[in-house]
Design goal:
The chain has 148 residues and is α/β, with parallel strands linked by helices. The protein has helices spanning 3-9, 18-28, 42-50, 86-95, 117-126, and strands at 36-39, 54-57, 60-61, 64-65, 72-78, 97-108, 130-137, 140-146.
Length: 148
């Protein structure tokens, strides 16, 4: 089961970690406002817009995001894809973010469910992301990395 499935089962749904992601984006972007941010669900896009950014919901269909390369300042996701396909999908996430931009993902620390922090960091590194950071707030682990 993916972290998104766990969140849904707990009744958290698509809004899983949205506030944590918005706060971490603001911190990592050094307070920059009005960033073009891709979000992998509607509630995340809304939360980012409420935080002063241009949040845009994007869909991942058949492993691709139908947007040009380097078209966003950041991408945020609530959860990660299964470990078996995560490296390719994280690479796709990074493709749509400009060099120096950020990719952020919220995963759960709820009862030890979800991937370990080390696994998430390894997946981000495998996707070519650099300058990784992981922060925990209220049971949510937000991992962020910069696109080369």
């Amino acid at each position: 089961m993916t972290i998104g499935g766990i969140a849904s089962a707990l009744g958290i749904g698509a809004s899983f970690g949205k506030k944590s992601l918005a706060r971490e984006l603001a911190r990592r972007a050094a307070g920059a406002n009005d960033l073009a941010v891709a979000a992998l669900n509607g509630p995340l896009a809304s939360a980012l817009t409420d935080a002063g950014h241009r949040g845009e919901e994007v869909a991942l269909v058949d492993g691709r995001i139908d947007r040009p390369s380097a078209g966003f300042d950041a991408l945020v996701a609530s959860g990660l894809p299964p470990v078996e396909v995560a490296p390719a999908l994280l690479g796709e996430w990074a493709r749509v973010v400009r060099p120096g931009g950020l990719v952020l993902a919220a995963t759960g620390g709820i009862g030890g469910r979800g991937p370990s922090r080390a696994t998430v960091a390894a997946l981000f590194l495998h996707a070519g992301l650099v300058d990784l950071e992981q922060r925990t707030a209220r049971g949510i682990v937000v991992t962020s990395g910069r696109v080369r």
